[in-house]
Amino acid sequence: MFVGAVFFPLLGASIAGFLGRWIGDKAAQMASVVCMVLAAICGVAAFFQVALGHAPATVEIMTFLDVGGFEVSWALRYDTLSAVMVGMVTLISTLIHVYSLGYMSHDPDRPRFFAYLSLFTFMMLMLVTADNLVQLFFGWEGVGLASYLLIGFWYEKESACAAAMKAFIVNRVGDLFFMLGLALTFWVFGSVEFATIFGSVEQHKDATFAGLPAYEVICVLLFLGACGKSAQLGLHTWLPDAMEGPTPVSALIHAATMVTAGVFLVARMSPIFEWAPTALALVTVVGASTALFAATIGCVQNDIKRIIAYSTCSQLGYMFFAAGVGAYQGAIFHLFTHAFFKALLFLGAGSVIHAMSDEQDIRKMGGIWRKIPITYAVMWIGSLALAGVPFFAGYYSKDFVLEAAFAAHSTVGMYAFACGILAAFLTAFYSWRLIILTFHGTPRADQHTMDHVHESPWVMLVPLLVLAAGAIGIGALFAENFVGHHWEQFWNGAIVNAPHNHIMHAVHEVPSWVPLAPTVVGLGGIGLAYILYMLAPGVPAKLAATFGGVYRFLLNKWYFDELYDAIFVRPTKALARMLWQTADARIIDGVPNGAASLASDIAAGAVRLQTGRVASYAFVMIAGLTVIVTMLAFGTAR
Predict the structure, then answer these.
(1) pTM of the full structure
(2) Is the model's pLDDT at 636 over the cut of 70?
Protein backbone atom coordinates (compact mmCIF):
# COMPACT_ATOMS: atom_id res chain seq x y z
CA MET A 1 0.00 0.00 0.00
CA PHE A 2 2.70 2.50 1.02
CA VAL A 3 4.94 1.62 -1.93
CA GLY A 4 2.05 1.45 -4.40
CA ALA A 5 0.83 4.96 -3.59
CA VAL A 6 4.22 6.34 -4.67
CA PHE A 7 5.28 4.02 -7.49
CA PHE A 8 2.06 3.38 -9.40
CA PRO A 9 2.29 6.87 -10.99
CA LEU A 10 5.87 6.11 -12.06
CA LEU A 11 4.66 2.86 -13.63
CA GLY A 12 1.93 4.75 -15.49
CA ALA A 13 4.42 7.36 -16.68
CA SER A 14 6.80 4.65 -17.92
CA ILE A 15 4.09 2.79 -19.83
CA ALA A 16 2.68 5.93 -21.46
CA GLY A 17 6.09 7.44 -22.16
CA PHE A 18 8.10 4.46 -23.38
CA LEU A 19 5.42 2.18 -24.81
CA GLY A 20 2.89 4.74 -26.09
CA ARG A 21 3.91 4.35 -29.73
CA TRP A 22 3.57 0.59 -29.64
CA ILE A 23 0.39 0.16 -27.60
CA GLY A 24 -1.45 3.16 -29.08
CA ASP A 25 -2.73 6.45 -27.69
CA LYS A 26 -5.85 5.10 -26.02
CA ALA A 27 -4.04 2.25 -24.27
CA ALA A 28 -1.30 4.59 -23.06
CA GLN A 29 -3.84 7.01 -21.59
CA MET A 30 -5.80 4.23 -19.91
CA ALA A 31 -2.64 2.72 -18.45
CA SER A 32 -1.72 6.06 -16.92
CA VAL A 33 -5.22 6.61 -15.54
CA VAL A 34 -5.54 3.05 -14.15
CA CYS A 35 -2.18 3.38 -12.39
CA MET A 36 -3.31 6.69 -10.87
CA VAL A 37 -6.57 5.12 -9.68
CA LEU A 38 -4.56 2.36 -7.98
CA ALA A 39 -2.26 5.00 -6.45
CA ALA A 40 -5.28 6.93 -5.14
CA ILE A 41 -6.72 3.80 -3.55
CA CYS A 42 -3.39 3.15 -1.83
CA GLY A 43 -2.95 6.81 -0.87
CA VAL A 44 -6.40 7.20 0.66
CA ALA A 45 -6.00 3.86 2.48
CA ALA A 46 -2.65 5.06 3.84
CA PHE A 47 -4.30 8.27 5.05
CA PHE A 48 -6.92 6.31 6.97
CA GLN A 49 -4.36 3.92 8.46
CA VAL A 50 -1.63 6.41 9.34
CA ALA A 51 -3.46 9.69 10.03
CA LEU A 52 -6.81 8.50 11.34
CA GLY A 53 -5.55 5.17 12.66
CA HIS A 54 -2.45 6.73 14.30
CA ALA A 55 -0.10 4.09 12.87
CA PRO A 56 2.95 5.81 11.33
CA ALA A 57 5.42 3.68 9.40
CA THR A 58 8.69 3.90 7.50
CA VAL A 59 9.36 1.66 4.51
CA GLU A 60 13.00 1.10 3.53
CA ILE A 61 13.47 0.83 -0.24
CA MET A 62 17.23 0.85 -0.87
CA THR A 63 20.43 2.78 -0.26
CA PHE A 64 20.02 6.04 -2.14
CA LEU A 65 23.59 7.33 -1.81
CA ASP A 66 26.75 5.82 -0.31
CA VAL A 67 29.89 7.95 -0.69
CA GLY A 68 32.67 7.38 1.81
CA GLY A 69 31.09 7.68 5.23
CA PHE A 70 28.04 9.54 3.89
CA GLU A 71 25.12 7.20 3.43
CA VAL A 72 21.56 8.19 2.58
CA SER A 73 18.75 5.67 2.42
CA TRP A 74 15.75 5.78 0.14
CA ALA A 75 12.85 5.29 2.50
CA LEU A 76 9.18 6.22 2.52
CA ARG A 77 8.30 8.13 5.69
CA TYR A 78 4.60 7.81 6.47
CA ASP A 79 3.62 10.00 9.39
CA THR A 80 0.43 12.06 9.53
CA LEU A 81 1.91 14.94 7.54
CA SER A 82 3.08 12.65 4.74
CA ALA A 83 -0.15 10.65 4.78
CA VAL A 84 -2.24 13.83 4.42
CA MET A 85 -0.16 14.93 1.46
CA VAL A 86 -0.07 11.50 -0.21
CA GLY A 87 -3.84 11.02 0.11
CA MET A 88 -4.55 14.49 -1.23
CA VAL A 89 -2.01 14.38 -4.09
CA THR A 90 -3.04 10.94 -5.37
CA LEU A 91 -6.77 11.71 -5.21
CA ILE A 92 -6.57 15.15 -6.86
CA SER A 93 -4.13 13.90 -9.49
CA THR A 94 -6.38 10.95 -10.34
CA LEU A 95 -9.34 13.27 -10.90
CA ILE A 96 -7.18 15.50 -13.11
CA HIS A 97 -6.02 12.46 -15.10
CA VAL A 98 -9.62 11.38 -15.69
CA TYR A 99 -10.61 14.95 -16.65
CA SER A 100 -7.69 15.05 -19.11
CA LEU A 101 -9.13 12.11 -21.04
CA GLY A 102 -11.81 14.50 -22.28
CA TYR A 103 -9.91 17.79 -22.28
CA MET A 104 -6.91 16.48 -24.25
CA SER A 105 -8.93 14.14 -26.50
CA HIS A 106 -7.99 16.02 -29.68
CA ASP A 107 -4.31 16.54 -28.87
CA PRO A 108 -1.95 14.49 -31.06
CA ASP A 109 0.60 14.00 -28.23
CA ARG A 110 -1.64 12.47 -25.57
CA PRO A 111 0.75 9.68 -24.47
CA ARG A 112 3.51 12.22 -23.85
CA PHE A 113 1.10 14.43 -21.90
CA PHE A 114 -0.06 11.61 -19.63
CA ALA A 115 3.52 10.44 -19.13
CA TYR A 116 4.56 13.91 -17.97
CA LEU A 117 1.46 14.26 -15.78
CA SER A 118 2.10 10.95 -14.00
CA LEU A 119 5.80 11.73 -13.67
CA PHE A 120 4.89 15.06 -12.03
CA THR A 121 2.72 13.21 -9.52
CA PHE A 122 5.44 10.66 -8.76
CA MET A 123 8.02 13.38 -8.09
CA MET A 124 5.67 15.16 -5.70
CA LEU A 125 5.00 11.91 -3.88
CA MET A 126 8.75 11.33 -3.63
CA LEU A 127 9.06 14.75 -2.05
CA VAL A 128 6.35 14.36 0.58
CA THR A 129 7.37 10.82 1.63
CA ALA A 130 11.08 11.66 1.91
CA ASP A 131 12.82 10.42 5.03
CA ASN A 132 15.76 12.80 4.63
CA LEU A 133 16.61 16.11 3.02
CA VAL A 134 18.53 14.61 0.08
CA GLN A 135 15.56 12.48 -0.96
CA LEU A 136 13.30 15.49 -0.47
CA PHE A 137 15.63 17.53 -2.68
CA PHE A 138 15.43 14.84 -5.37
CA GLY A 139 11.64 15.17 -5.44
CA TRP A 140 12.00 18.95 -5.20
CA GLU A 141 14.08 19.07 -8.37
CA GLY A 142 11.89 16.43 -9.98
CA VAL A 143 8.74 18.55 -9.74
CA GLY A 144 10.73 21.44 -11.19
CA LEU A 145 11.72 19.31 -14.18
CA ALA A 146 8.20 17.96 -14.66
CA SER A 147 6.69 21.45 -14.46
CA TYR A 148 9.13 22.61 -17.15
CA LEU A 149 8.04 19.75 -19.41
CA LEU A 150 4.32 20.37 -18.82
CA ILE A 151 4.32 24.17 -19.00
CA GLY A 152 6.18 23.91 -22.30
CA PHE A 153 4.11 20.94 -23.50
CA TRP A 154 2.90 22.87 -26.54
CA TYR A 155 6.49 23.69 -27.50
CA GLU A 156 5.44 24.92 -30.94
CA LYS A 157 4.23 28.10 -29.19
CA GLU A 158 7.04 30.51 -28.43
CA SER A 159 5.15 31.83 -25.39
CA ALA A 160 4.93 28.30 -23.91
CA CYS A 161 8.67 27.75 -24.32
CA ALA A 162 9.41 31.12 -22.73
CA ALA A 163 7.07 30.39 -19.82
CA ALA A 164 8.68 26.99 -19.23
CA MET A 165 12.16 28.53 -19.21
CA LYS A 166 11.02 31.28 -16.88
CA ALA A 167 9.57 28.80 -14.39
CA PHE A 168 12.71 26.68 -14.54
CA ILE A 169 15.15 29.58 -14.09
CA VAL A 170 13.23 31.36 -11.31
CA ASN A 171 12.96 28.09 -9.43
CA ARG A 172 16.70 27.54 -9.78
CA VAL A 173 17.20 30.76 -7.83
CA GLY A 174 15.14 29.39 -4.94
CA ASP A 175 16.76 25.96 -5.24
CA LEU A 176 20.20 27.49 -4.69
CA PHE A 177 19.08 28.68 -1.26
CA PHE A 178 17.55 25.27 -0.53
CA MET A 179 20.88 23.58 -1.30
CA LEU A 180 22.74 25.99 0.98
CA GLY A 181 20.21 25.30 3.73
CA LEU A 182 20.62 21.55 3.20
CA ALA A 183 24.42 21.84 3.41
CA LEU A 184 24.25 23.95 6.58
CA THR A 185 21.81 21.49 8.15
CA PHE A 186 24.31 18.68 7.53
CA TRP A 187 27.11 20.84 8.94
CA VAL A 188 25.17 21.49 12.16
CA PHE A 189 23.59 18.08 12.74
CA GLY A 190 26.06 15.80 10.96
CA SER A 191 23.13 14.13 9.18
CA VAL A 192 20.39 14.75 6.66
CA GLU A 193 18.05 12.11 8.14
CA PHE A 194 14.93 13.64 9.68
CA ALA A 195 14.96 11.25 12.63
CA THR A 196 18.50 12.30 13.56
CA ILE A 197 17.89 16.00 12.97
CA PHE A 198 14.64 16.23 14.90
CA GLY A 199 15.99 14.08 17.70
CA SER A 200 18.87 16.47 18.39
CA VAL A 201 17.22 19.87 17.96
CA GLU A 202 17.59 20.72 21.65
CA GLN A 203 21.24 19.68 21.60
CA HIS A 204 22.26 22.06 18.78
CA LYS A 205 19.93 25.01 19.38
CA ASP A 206 22.83 27.25 20.49
CA ALA A 207 24.95 26.48 17.42
CA THR A 208 26.19 29.45 15.40
CA PHE A 209 27.32 29.98 11.84
CA ALA A 210 29.36 33.04 10.84
CA GLY A 211 28.40 34.61 14.16
CA LEU A 212 24.67 34.09 13.57
CA PRO A 213 22.32 31.54 15.15
CA ALA A 214 22.63 28.51 12.89
CA TYR A 215 18.91 27.65 13.13
CA GLU A 216 17.98 31.12 11.93
CA VAL A 217 20.27 30.87 8.92
CA ILE A 218 19.06 27.36 8.06
CA CYS A 219 15.40 28.37 8.25
CA VAL A 220 15.84 31.56 6.24
CA LEU A 221 17.66 29.61 3.50
CA LEU A 222 15.02 26.88 3.43
CA PHE A 223 12.24 29.46 3.34
CA LEU A 224 13.87 31.28 0.43
CA GLY A 225 13.94 27.93 -1.35
CA ALA A 226 10.26 27.51 -0.51
CA CYS A 227 9.54 30.99 -1.94
CA GLY A 228 10.67 29.79 -5.37
CA LYS A 229 8.52 26.68 -5.46
CA SER A 230 5.51 28.31 -3.80
CA ALA A 231 5.70 31.59 -5.74
CA GLN A 232 6.01 33.99 -2.85
CA LEU A 233 6.61 37.70 -3.34
CA GLY A 234 9.82 38.25 -5.27
CA LEU A 235 10.00 34.77 -6.79
CA HIS A 236 6.36 34.67 -7.90
CA THR A 237 6.77 35.88 -11.47
CA TRP A 238 6.80 32.40 -13.03
CA LEU A 239 3.38 31.40 -11.70
CA PRO A 240 0.99 33.38 -13.96
CA ASP A 241 3.08 32.55 -17.03
CA ALA A 242 2.71 28.85 -16.19
CA MET A 243 -0.84 29.19 -17.57
CA GLU A 244 0.70 28.56 -21.00
CA GLY A 245 0.47 24.85 -20.28
CA PRO A 246 -2.76 22.86 -20.78
CA THR A 247 -5.43 23.60 -18.16
CA PRO A 248 -5.10 20.20 -16.38
CA VAL A 249 -1.43 21.08 -15.84
CA SER A 250 -2.43 24.37 -14.24
CA ALA A 251 -4.82 22.52 -11.96
CA LEU A 252 -2.18 19.99 -10.90
CA ILE A 253 0.53 22.61 -10.30
CA HIS A 254 -1.72 24.94 -8.34
CA ALA A 255 -3.81 22.47 -6.39
CA ALA A 256 -1.79 19.43 -5.41
CA THR A 257 1.83 19.49 -6.44
CA MET A 258 4.58 22.00 -7.04
CA VAL A 259 3.38 25.15 -5.31
CA THR A 260 2.41 23.28 -2.14
CA ALA A 261 5.95 21.90 -1.76
CA GLY A 262 7.23 25.03 -0.04
CA VAL A 263 4.47 24.99 2.57
CA PHE A 264 5.12 21.30 3.17
CA LEU A 265 8.84 21.97 3.65
CA VAL A 266 8.22 24.59 6.34
CA ALA A 267 5.79 22.27 8.14
CA ARG A 268 8.20 19.32 7.86
CA MET A 269 11.03 21.38 9.34
CA SER A 270 8.83 22.83 12.10
CA PRO A 271 11.05 21.41 14.88
CA ILE A 272 13.84 23.75 13.70
CA PHE A 273 11.62 26.69 12.71
CA GLU A 274 10.22 26.72 16.25
CA TRP A 275 13.64 27.85 17.49
CA ALA A 276 14.12 30.50 14.77
CA PRO A 277 11.80 33.42 15.68
CA THR A 278 13.39 35.84 13.20
CA ALA A 279 12.92 33.38 10.36
CA LEU A 280 9.30 32.84 11.40
CA ALA A 281 8.73 36.60 11.41
CA LEU A 282 10.14 36.74 7.86
CA VAL A 283 7.82 33.89 6.81
CA THR A 284 4.85 35.77 8.29
CA VAL A 285 5.62 39.12 6.65
CA VAL A 286 6.39 37.65 3.21
CA GLY A 287 3.33 35.39 3.33
CA ALA A 288 0.99 38.20 4.39
CA SER A 289 2.42 40.60 1.80
CA THR A 290 2.04 37.96 -0.92
CA ALA A 291 -1.58 37.29 0.07
CA LEU A 292 -2.49 40.96 -0.36
CA PHE A 293 -0.23 41.67 -3.34
CA ALA A 294 -1.59 38.81 -5.46
CA ALA A 295 -5.20 39.60 -4.53
CA THR A 296 -4.83 43.18 -5.81
CA ILE A 297 -3.57 41.91 -9.18
CA GLY A 298 -6.34 39.33 -9.47
CA CYS A 299 -8.94 42.10 -9.37
CA VAL A 300 -8.04 43.47 -12.80
CA GLN A 301 -6.80 40.48 -14.81
CA ASN A 302 -8.87 39.40 -17.81
CA ASP A 303 -7.53 35.91 -18.55
CA ILE A 304 -9.74 33.44 -16.68
CA LYS A 305 -6.80 31.19 -15.81
CA ARG A 306 -4.54 34.04 -14.70
CA ILE A 307 -7.17 35.30 -12.27
CA ILE A 308 -7.27 31.87 -10.64
CA ALA A 309 -3.46 31.69 -10.76
CA TYR A 310 -3.10 34.89 -8.76
CA SER A 311 -5.70 33.49 -6.39
CA THR A 312 -3.35 30.55 -5.79
CA CYS A 313 -0.46 32.90 -5.13
CA SER A 314 -2.61 34.77 -2.61
CA GLN A 315 -3.83 31.63 -0.84
CA LEU A 316 -0.27 30.34 -0.55
CA GLY A 317 0.48 33.56 1.27
CA TYR A 318 -2.21 32.62 3.81
CA MET A 319 -0.58 29.25 4.32
CA PHE A 320 2.84 30.76 4.90
CA PHE A 321 1.76 33.37 7.39
CA ALA A 322 -0.14 30.67 9.28
CA ALA A 323 3.12 28.73 9.53
CA GLY A 324 4.94 31.96 10.41
CA VAL A 325 2.85 32.50 13.55
CA GLY A 326 3.39 28.87 14.53
CA ALA A 327 0.08 27.38 13.35
CA TYR A 328 1.66 24.87 10.96
CA GLN A 329 -1.40 22.65 11.35
CA GLY A 330 -3.61 25.48 10.06
CA ALA A 331 -1.27 25.99 7.11
CA ILE A 332 -1.56 22.33 6.10
CA PHE A 333 -5.33 22.37 6.71
CA HIS A 334 -5.72 25.30 4.33
CA LEU A 335 -3.40 23.56 1.85
CA PHE A 336 -5.64 20.47 2.10
CA THR A 337 -8.97 22.24 1.55
CA HIS A 338 -7.47 24.59 -1.03
CA ALA A 339 -6.44 21.60 -3.16
CA PHE A 340 -10.08 20.65 -3.70
CA PHE A 341 -11.59 24.02 -4.51
CA LYS A 342 -8.60 25.27 -6.51
CA ALA A 343 -8.56 22.11 -8.65
CA LEU A 344 -12.30 22.61 -9.06
CA LEU A 345 -11.87 26.23 -10.19
CA PHE A 346 -9.11 25.43 -12.68
CA LEU A 347 -10.89 22.45 -14.16
CA GLY A 348 -14.12 24.49 -14.22
CA ALA A 349 -12.24 27.21 -16.10
CA GLY A 350 -11.03 24.50 -18.48
CA SER A 351 -14.64 23.46 -19.04
CA VAL A 352 -15.50 27.09 -19.88
CA ILE A 353 -12.54 27.34 -22.27
CA HIS A 354 -13.60 24.05 -23.87
CA ALA A 355 -17.15 25.38 -24.31
CA MET A 356 -15.95 28.73 -25.69
CA SER A 357 -13.71 27.25 -28.41
CA ASP A 358 -10.46 27.94 -26.48
CA GLU A 359 -11.32 31.54 -25.59
CA GLN A 360 -9.79 32.61 -22.24
CA ASP A 361 -10.56 36.35 -22.11
CA ILE A 362 -13.55 36.92 -19.80
CA ARG A 363 -14.29 40.18 -21.63
CA LYS A 364 -15.27 38.04 -24.64
CA MET A 365 -17.63 35.78 -22.73
CA GLY A 366 -20.93 36.41 -20.92
CA GLY A 367 -24.45 35.06 -21.15
CA ILE A 368 -23.51 31.38 -21.22
CA TRP A 369 -24.68 30.05 -17.86
CA ARG A 370 -27.83 28.45 -19.27
CA LYS A 371 -25.81 26.59 -21.89
CA ILE A 372 -23.31 25.08 -19.43
CA PRO A 373 -25.31 24.83 -16.17
CA ILE A 374 -23.18 22.14 -14.48
CA THR A 375 -19.96 24.05 -15.09
CA TYR A 376 -21.69 27.21 -13.85
CA ALA A 377 -22.83 25.47 -10.66
CA VAL A 378 -19.42 24.01 -9.80
CA MET A 379 -17.72 27.36 -10.44
CA TRP A 380 -20.11 28.87 -7.91
CA ILE A 381 -19.22 26.16 -5.40
CA GLY A 382 -15.48 26.64 -5.95
CA SER A 383 -15.79 30.41 -5.60
CA LEU A 384 -17.88 30.11 -2.42
CA ALA A 385 -15.22 27.86 -0.92
CA LEU A 386 -12.43 30.22 -2.01
CA ALA A 387 -14.21 33.24 -0.57
CA GLY A 388 -14.66 31.45 2.76
CA VAL A 389 -18.44 31.62 2.76
CA PRO A 390 -20.07 29.46 5.48
CA PHE A 391 -20.11 26.49 5.41
CA PHE A 392 -17.86 25.63 2.52
CA ALA A 393 -14.36 24.17 2.86
CA GLY A 394 -12.48 27.47 2.78
CA TYR A 395 -14.63 28.85 5.58
CA TYR A 396 -13.04 26.45 8.07
CA SER A 397 -9.42 26.66 6.96
CA LYS A 398 -9.07 30.30 5.94
CA ASP A 399 -10.91 31.51 9.04
CA PHE A 400 -8.61 29.43 11.24
CA VAL A 401 -5.55 30.94 9.56
CA LEU A 402 -6.83 34.48 10.21
CA GLU A 403 -7.77 33.67 13.78
CA ALA A 404 -4.28 32.24 14.35
CA ALA A 405 -2.68 35.42 13.03
CA PHE A 406 -4.80 37.50 15.43
CA ALA A 407 -4.14 35.12 18.33
CA ALA A 408 -0.37 35.49 17.88
CA HIS A 409 -0.61 38.89 19.62
CA SER A 410 2.50 40.15 17.85
CA THR A 411 3.22 42.99 15.45
CA VAL A 412 3.81 40.66 12.51
CA GLY A 413 0.72 38.66 13.49
CA MET A 414 -1.49 41.75 13.39
CA TYR A 415 0.09 42.76 10.08
CA ALA A 416 -0.76 39.31 8.71
CA PHE A 417 -4.31 39.55 10.06
CA ALA A 418 -4.85 42.97 8.44
CA CYS A 419 -3.42 41.81 5.09
CA GLY A 420 -5.43 38.61 5.28
CA ILE A 421 -8.73 40.41 5.97
CA LEU A 422 -8.18 42.84 3.11
CA ALA A 423 -7.13 39.97 0.82
CA ALA A 424 -10.30 38.08 1.81
CA PHE A 425 -12.39 41.05 0.65
CA LEU A 426 -10.51 41.27 -2.66
CA THR A 427 -10.68 37.50 -3.16
CA ALA A 428 -14.46 37.50 -2.92
CA PHE A 429 -14.59 40.52 -5.23
CA TYR A 430 -12.48 39.10 -8.06
CA SER A 431 -14.13 35.67 -7.73
CA TRP A 432 -17.56 37.14 -8.44
CA ARG A 433 -16.18 39.49 -11.04
CA LEU A 434 -15.01 36.34 -12.84
CA ILE A 435 -18.38 34.59 -12.43
CA ILE A 436 -20.44 37.57 -13.56
CA LEU A 437 -18.29 38.48 -16.57
CA THR A 438 -17.95 34.84 -17.62
CA PHE A 439 -21.51 33.62 -17.24
CA HIS A 440 -23.87 36.61 -17.00
CA GLY A 441 -24.82 39.68 -18.97
CA THR A 442 -25.06 40.12 -22.70
CA PRO A 443 -22.95 37.67 -24.73
CA ARG A 444 -19.77 39.40 -25.90
CA ALA A 445 -18.41 36.58 -28.05
CA ASP A 446 -19.06 36.40 -31.79
CA GLN A 447 -22.14 34.53 -32.95
CA HIS A 448 -20.16 31.61 -34.33
CA THR A 449 -18.59 30.96 -30.91
CA MET A 450 -21.94 31.35 -29.11
CA ASP A 451 -23.57 28.85 -31.45
CA HIS A 452 -21.00 26.24 -30.45
CA VAL A 453 -21.12 26.74 -26.66
CA HIS A 454 -21.85 23.35 -25.12
CA GLU A 455 -21.47 21.49 -21.84
CA SER A 456 -18.37 19.34 -21.38
CA PRO A 457 -18.54 15.54 -21.72
CA TRP A 458 -19.18 13.46 -18.61
CA VAL A 459 -15.57 12.31 -18.41
CA MET A 460 -14.80 15.95 -17.56
CA LEU A 461 -17.91 16.64 -15.49
CA VAL A 462 -17.60 13.69 -13.09
CA PRO A 463 -14.23 14.89 -11.67
CA LEU A 464 -15.78 18.37 -11.32
CA LEU A 465 -18.69 16.98 -9.32
CA VAL A 466 -16.37 14.97 -7.04
CA LEU A 467 -14.22 18.05 -6.42
CA ALA A 468 -17.36 20.11 -5.81
CA ALA A 469 -18.38 17.65 -3.10
CA GLY A 470 -14.94 18.08 -1.54
CA ALA A 471 -15.15 21.87 -1.77
CA ILE A 472 -18.44 21.71 0.12
CA GLY A 473 -17.76 19.17 2.82
CA ILE A 474 -14.05 18.48 3.24
CA GLY A 475 -13.51 21.38 5.64
CA ALA A 476 -16.30 20.48 8.04
CA LEU A 477 -15.36 16.80 7.87
CA PHE A 478 -11.72 17.22 8.91
CA ALA A 479 -11.62 20.52 10.83
CA GLU A 480 -11.78 18.82 14.22
CA ASN A 481 -8.87 16.53 13.36
CA PHE A 482 -6.61 19.09 11.71
CA VAL A 483 -7.11 22.12 13.97
CA GLY A 484 -9.82 21.24 16.45
CA HIS A 485 -9.50 20.00 19.99
CA HIS A 486 -8.08 16.63 18.80
CA TRP A 487 -5.24 18.08 16.75
CA GLU A 488 -2.46 16.68 18.96
CA GLN A 489 -3.79 13.15 18.68
CA PHE A 490 -4.29 13.52 14.92
CA TRP A 491 -0.86 14.94 14.08
CA ASN A 492 0.86 12.53 16.45
CA GLY A 493 4.15 14.46 16.50
CA ALA A 494 4.43 14.85 12.71
CA ILE A 495 4.29 18.63 13.22
CA VAL A 496 6.06 20.02 16.28
CA ASN A 497 4.99 22.94 18.44
CA ALA A 498 7.70 23.88 20.92
CA PRO A 499 6.80 24.37 24.61
CA HIS A 500 6.77 28.15 24.14
CA ASN A 501 4.28 27.96 21.22
CA HIS A 502 0.71 28.10 22.50
CA ILE A 503 -0.93 29.29 19.28
CA MET A 504 -3.09 26.19 18.81
CA HIS A 505 -4.70 26.79 22.17
CA ALA A 506 -4.82 30.60 21.94
CA VAL A 507 -6.67 30.50 18.62
CA HIS A 508 -9.79 29.18 20.39
CA GLU A 509 -9.81 32.19 22.72
CA VAL A 510 -9.95 35.07 20.22
CA PRO A 511 -12.75 37.68 20.54
CA SER A 512 -16.05 36.68 18.97
CA TRP A 513 -15.82 39.32 16.23
CA VAL A 514 -12.61 37.81 14.78
CA PRO A 515 -14.24 34.65 13.34
CA LEU A 516 -17.03 36.82 11.90
CA ALA A 517 -14.74 39.30 10.16
CA PRO A 518 -13.71 37.10 7.17
CA THR A 519 -17.33 36.23 6.43
CA VAL A 520 -18.43 39.86 6.63
CA VAL A 521 -15.68 41.17 4.35
CA GLY A 522 -16.20 38.23 1.97
CA LEU A 523 -19.89 38.99 1.60
CA GLY A 524 -18.95 42.64 1.16
CA GLY A 525 -16.62 41.74 -1.72
CA ILE A 526 -19.35 39.68 -3.37
CA GLY A 527 -21.80 42.56 -2.96
CA LEU A 528 -19.40 45.07 -4.48
CA ALA A 529 -18.77 42.83 -7.50
CA TYR A 530 -22.53 42.40 -7.97
CA ILE A 531 -23.10 46.17 -7.87
CA LEU A 532 -20.24 47.01 -10.26
CA TYR A 533 -20.73 44.26 -12.82
CA MET A 534 -24.44 43.46 -12.66
CA LEU A 535 -26.27 46.64 -11.58
CA ALA A 536 -23.87 49.25 -12.97
CA PRO A 537 -21.71 47.53 -15.60
CA GLY A 538 -20.44 50.82 -17.00
CA VAL A 539 -18.82 51.93 -13.75
CA PRO A 540 -15.68 49.71 -13.85
CA ALA A 541 -14.59 51.24 -17.17
CA LYS A 542 -15.08 54.76 -15.77
CA LEU A 543 -13.10 53.86 -12.65
CA ALA A 544 -10.31 52.41 -14.80
CA ALA A 545 -10.18 55.66 -16.79
CA THR A 546 -10.31 57.87 -13.69
CA PHE A 547 -7.65 55.92 -11.82
CA GLY A 548 -5.66 54.99 -14.92
CA GLY A 549 -2.30 54.92 -13.18
CA VAL A 550 -3.44 52.55 -10.45
CA TYR A 551 -5.28 50.37 -12.97
CA ARG A 552 -2.23 50.05 -15.23
CA PHE A 553 -0.02 49.40 -12.19
CA LEU A 554 -2.20 46.46 -11.16
CA LEU A 555 -2.83 45.25 -14.72
CA ASN A 556 0.93 45.13 -15.27
CA LYS A 557 1.39 43.10 -12.07
CA TRP A 558 3.14 45.87 -10.13
CA TYR A 559 5.72 45.97 -12.98
CA PHE A 560 7.76 43.15 -11.43
CA ASP A 561 8.53 41.64 -14.83
CA GLU A 562 9.65 44.99 -16.20
CA LEU A 563 11.75 45.63 -13.07
CA TYR A 564 13.46 42.25 -13.28
CA ASP A 565 13.98 42.74 -17.00
CA ALA A 566 15.79 46.02 -16.33
CA ILE A 567 17.81 44.78 -13.34
CA PHE A 568 18.66 41.20 -14.32
CA VAL A 569 17.67 40.23 -17.87
CA ARG A 570 19.02 43.15 -19.93
CA PRO A 571 22.37 43.44 -18.06
CA THR A 572 22.83 39.67 -18.31
CA LYS A 573 22.11 39.75 -22.04
CA ALA A 574 24.49 42.71 -22.50
CA LEU A 575 27.23 40.90 -20.58
CA ALA A 576 26.63 37.72 -22.57
CA ARG A 577 26.77 39.65 -25.84
CA MET A 578 30.06 41.32 -24.82
CA LEU A 579 31.60 38.00 -23.76
CA TRP A 580 30.44 36.45 -27.02
CA GLN A 581 31.71 39.18 -29.33
CA THR A 582 34.94 40.01 -27.45
CA ALA A 583 36.06 37.11 -25.30
CA ASP A 584 34.66 34.31 -27.44
CA ALA A 585 34.76 35.58 -31.03
CA ARG A 586 37.95 37.74 -30.85
CA ILE A 587 40.08 36.02 -28.21
CA ILE A 588 38.98 32.40 -27.72
CA ASP A 589 38.15 31.89 -31.39
CA GLY A 590 40.43 34.65 -32.75
CA VAL A 591 43.83 33.39 -31.52
CA PRO A 592 43.63 29.80 -32.81
CA ASN A 593 41.75 30.92 -35.92
CA GLY A 594 44.44 33.57 -36.60
CA ALA A 595 47.24 31.04 -36.15
CA ALA A 596 45.45 28.65 -38.45
CA SER A 597 44.97 31.42 -41.03
CA LEU A 598 48.69 32.33 -40.87
CA ALA A 599 49.72 28.72 -41.35
CA SER A 600 47.30 28.49 -44.26
CA ASP A 601 48.80 31.61 -45.92
CA ILE A 602 52.35 30.26 -45.50
CA ALA A 603 51.31 26.95 -46.93
CA ALA A 604 49.63 28.69 -49.87
CA GLY A 605 52.88 30.56 -50.61
CA ALA A 606 54.89 27.38 -50.40
CA VAL A 607 52.49 25.65 -52.74
CA ARG A 608 53.16 28.23 -55.43
CA LEU A 609 56.83 27.23 -55.44
CA GLN A 610 55.97 23.63 -56.19
CA THR A 611 55.40 23.87 -59.99
CA GLY A 612 56.17 20.25 -60.83
CA ARG A 613 58.59 21.24 -63.67
CA VAL A 614 62.06 19.57 -63.60
CA ALA A 615 63.72 22.52 -65.34
CA SER A 616 62.51 24.90 -62.61
CA TYR A 617 63.78 22.61 -59.85
CA ALA A 618 67.16 22.30 -61.66
CA PHE A 619 67.41 26.08 -61.99
CA VAL A 620 66.69 26.57 -58.30
CA MET A 621 69.28 23.93 -57.36
CA ILE A 622 71.96 25.55 -59.59
CA ALA A 623 71.10 29.00 -58.22
CA GLY A 624 71.32 27.72 -54.68
CA LEU A 625 74.66 25.97 -55.41
CA THR A 626 75.99 29.20 -56.91
CA VAL A 627 75.05 31.16 -53.81
CA ILE A 628 76.73 28.60 -51.53
CA VAL A 629 79.95 28.50 -53.61
CA THR A 630 80.07 32.30 -53.67
CA MET A 631 79.70 32.48 -49.89
CA LEU A 632 82.43 29.88 -49.38
CA ALA A 633 84.74 31.73 -51.79
CA PHE A 634 84.31 35.01 -49.94
CA GLY A 635 84.83 33.24 -46.65
CA THR A 636 88.08 31.59 -47.80
CA ALA A 637 89.39 34.88 -49.18
CA ARG A 638 88.99 36.55 -45.76
Answers:
(1) 0.91
(2) no
